[in-house]
C-alpha cells in the first residue's frame, strides 16, 4: 500500500549548510498492516511521518501510496489526498479548544467532504467511548479522553493509513494502554494501515512488526554508529 | 462545518481581544454614521425651506445671508424694516386701494377733493361761466394726474410678475421662539415638503389665523408644533409676545391660540405666527411718525384696536421682509431692479443656502468625514494587529488544519473571513448604534433644527461628482467599504497563515 524508495530529507542550517535527517533506501507498509517505528528522540521519526503525509517536502526519492506516486502530486493534490486517505494522531492531540468533541471530529471531515457526516462522527466518538462527551470541549475532558477524540478525528474520513506520532507520550500511564488498544483495535476494525511512532518498548512490544528507524534510515544508523564509538 | 463557522469559532476563542477590536470598529463606524447623519440633517434643514413655495425674499438692505437666516429660518436678528408701501408695489390695485384707504395721504386727498367740491359749489353762483369751465377743466387735469401720482390708483410696480407676496413682521418672541406677524396667506398659499406640494395642516380643532375674527378680533395666533409642545400650548390658550428678545417685556396684548401646526420639519415648527394687524396694534409696534398728531382721527386709541373697519395707516406700517413667489422669467430682472434701488434688497434663498453650504458647511462636513474615515482605518489597523498578534499562538491550529487536509488557500480564506466578520459585526454594531443614537436624540434634533429624523432614516448621498456615489445613501457605502477594509487589513495575517510551515509548527 505504501512504498518508499530512496527518500532523502534535509533541513537548512543557519550557517548555510544542510542537516541531513532522512536517507531511506526502502520502506514498505502493506494494506491494513500495523507497523511501529521505534527510535530515539530526534532520529527523524516525526519527519518521516510528515514526509509520508506530504506536510513536509522531500529532497529526493519516491513515495507510492495506493499505486499513486505522491511525489508527483502538486501541493493542492497532496492536500486533498491527505484529507481523504491519511489520518493523523498527534503527540499533543492538537484538538481545537473552541470546538466540542463532535465539532473537532467534524472538522476532520470538513476538508475532505463538502457535507460532513455528523451521524458517522457521533458514532466514531461512541466507538472510542465518548458517546456521552459529544458536546464537551477539550478543556472539559481528561488528556486520555482528548486523545480518544483525536483518534476519532483521524478516522473520520475513513483513511487507508493512520499516522500516530507518539500518541501516548503525553498521557498518564493509566491511560496509555487504553489509547494503544484503541488505536490497534480501530485500525484492525476499519482495515486501516498504521505507522505508529514511539520511543518506548512498552508500546512497541504490543505490535507484530517493529521497525527500528536506525535500520531503515541510513542517517540515523550513521549517527547511532558515531555515538557507539 | 463551513469556513465561516470555523472563523467565527476562532473569533469566539479570543473573545476579549475580538470584542475590543469590534468595539473599536463599532465606535469608528458609529462616528461615521453620526457624521453622515449630521451632514444629512444640516442639508435637510437648509433644503427643507428652499422649496417652501416662494423663490425670493425681499427685506432691508444689508447682508443677504442674514436676511435669509432671519426671514426663512427665524435665526439671527432682522437687519431693518422696509416701508409698507414697498410691499404694496407687489400687490394689485384692488389690494392697494384697500390698504391705502386708511392712509394719511388718501385721507388728505379726500379732504382736498371735498374742499374743492365745496369751493366749486359756492363759486358756481359767484363766478362767470368761463371761470366755471376753467375750474372743471383744471379738475379733469388734476384727476388724470391723480391716477399717476396717487398710489392707490394704479397696480403695484411688480404686481404683474408676482404670484404672491407674504409679509413678515419680526422682532417679538414667545419664550425663546420667534413671534412672526403675517397674514393668513402664509399657510393658505405656501406649501412645504421635498416637492413643495404638502399643504400645512393644523391639529384637530385648530385652524389658520383669520384676517379678522368676530370673537378674537385681530389677535389670533397659530403655533408651531415644537413651540406648542415645549410651551404646552393648546387651542384656546392665550399668549403675550415679549418685545425685542426672549427676555424682553411682555406686551399686554393677548393673542388667542386658534391652531397648532402639525409637525413639518421646517423652521415654522419653531415659531408662533400672529395676525400682522394684531402685531401692529401691540404697543410701540406701529411706526411713530414725525407728526404724531392725527388730525383725521386715525390715532390708535383703545376702542379702535378691535374695530374691524379701522385700517392702520400705511404710513405707520413697516414690514421686516416679504416672501415672494415671482415669475421665474422675470425674477432675475426684478432682483436687479430691487437691488439697484435704495429701499430694499432681493435675494434668492436657494442661492444663499447653497452658498452657505458650499463655502462653510460642506468643507467642515468633509473634514469631519475624512477624520471619521481615518478613525475607521485606525479600527481596521487594530483588527490587523489583533489578528496578526494571534497568529503566533495559532500556528499550531493552522498546522492542524493543514494536516487534516486544508489547503493553503483554505487557511488564507479562514483568516480573511475572520477579518471580515470582525469588521462587519463591528461595523453593523456601529451602524445600529449610530442610528440608535440618532433615534435617541431625534427629539432634541427636531427641536433644534426642525428636521424629523428617526432610526430608519438613512444619510443622504455624498455630494461627490461620481454617478453611483451621489445617487445612493452614503450609508450603503459603509458595508462594501468595510469588506474592502477587512480584505486589506486581513491580507497580511492571511498571507502569514498561508505561508505557515506546517512541519515546523507541528513540531513545536
Task: Give structural notes.
The complex is a heterodimer of chains A (229) and B (508). With 229 residues, chain A is α/β, with parallel strands linked by helices. Chain A is built from 9 helices and 9 strands. Among the domains of chain B are: 3-47 and 361-507, no CATH class; 175-285, no CATH class. Chain B starts with a helix and ends with a helix. In chain B, strands 1, 3, 4, 7, 8, 9, 10, 11, 13 and 14 form a 10-stranded mixed sheet that branches. Chain B has a two-stranded antiparallel sheet with strand order 2-12. In chain B, strands 5-6 form a two-stranded antiparallel sheet.
| Terminus-to-terminus distance of chain B | 27 Å
Poorly predicted runs of chain A are none
Oligomer: heterodimer
Q: Number of helix segments of chain A?
A: 9
Largest sheet of chain B: 10 strands, mixed
Sheet/helix structural class of chain B: alpha+beta
Shape of chain A: globular
CATH fold title of chain A: Rossmann fold
Broad CATH class of chain A: Alpha Beta
- Total helical segments of chain B: 16
Overall average residue pLDDT of chain B: 82
Q: Alpha-carbon distance between the termini of chain A?
A: 38 Å
Domain count of chain A: the total is 1
Structural class of chain A: alpha/beta
From the spread of the alpha carbons, the general shape of chain B counts as elongated
Rg from alpha-carbon coordinates of chain A: 18 Å
Low-confidence stretches of chain B: 293-303
Kindly report the average pLDDT value of chain A: 88
- Counting DSSP E segments of at least 2 residues, the number of strands of chain A comes to 9
* Biggest beta sheet summary of chain A: 5 strands, parallel
Q: What's the CATH H-level superfamily name of chain A? A: P-loop containing nucleotide triphosphate hydrolases
